[in-house]
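Contributing new complexes? Match this layout with adenosine-5'-triphosphate.
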Amino acid sequence: MIQVKNLSFSYSDYKFIEDMNFEIKSGEIFGFLGPSGAGKSTLQKILTGVISDYSGIVKVNNTDMKNKKADFYEKIGVDFEFPTLYEKLTARENLKFFSSLYKCRTRDIDELLKSVNLLNDADKKAGDFSKGMKSRLNFIKSLLHDPEILFLDEPTSGLDPTNSRMMKDLILEEKKKGKTVIVTTHNMSDATEICDRVAFIVDGAIKALDTPHNLIMQKGAAKVTYTWIENEHEKTDTCNLKECGSHKKLMSLMSEGKITSIHSSEPTLNDIFMDVTGRTLI
Ligand SMILES: Nc1ncnc2c1ncn2[C@@H]1O[C@H](COP(=O)(O)OP(=O)(O)OP(=O)(O)O)[C@@H](O)[C@H]1O
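Output block (do not edit by hand):
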């Protein structure tokens, strides 16, 4: 669905992206994860044709991005971080206007508004919407023409837990319909939950690319944390789960019946990101 070969790009004399290669399969939810300034939005802009002065090969939906025509935009939906809505038009008027730009048949506006709990606000001006309401409206704007590929920049950013859940469910719904979804996010738990594969991006380069499960299993070791009472004070220590049978201190505390609590924990994608890139996601 998406092929990127030997991609290089710079905003100035300094090469920001150098010789990048990756593929995204049809029907998968693919996440670009990285801290602020890593290059996630730059990549989305290259894949959606906003930036075209790159070198290398970029193919999206079998279209070489150097030769894309206007009909390319009939097949992709874009929801970038900042809503692009007409503030003086109502939600419904906005959706009607953007629908009119497509040649293809567009989706039912009321159904879309209902899917993000905005049907009762359909006739309110977008300018009077809260930030979260604008995000939801901008999201369904990207679905109007039922695109094959969706590009979403930070889709859950700034949403409360209920709306964030709804957004993730709608993204998973698109995947069920066979759509390909490319998301950028700082949010590792969202990425672990919805992405089939993720790429860790730092300083314009991919540092790792795999399923969240494989990244966690290959790179991280599950840990055991145990506590015991010593001289009336609670003490805590950890060891690797695989080594706990031969961990002398833990074994002797257990045989003496001194352990007061013990639990194991798997590393999170966030731990793996720090391990692989040496960076945090902020
Ligand atoms: N139009 C531009 N001109 C010059 N430099 C730019 C431009 N847009 C982005 N950059 C620089 O390119 C780098 C990558 O920016 P980009 O917006 O792709 O990062 P990001 O990973 O999407 O960050 P964030 O999570 O904060 O949105 C940053 O150092 C940024 O300052």
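Reviewers usually confirm one structural detail per submission. For this one: The chain has two domains: 2-217, 221-266.
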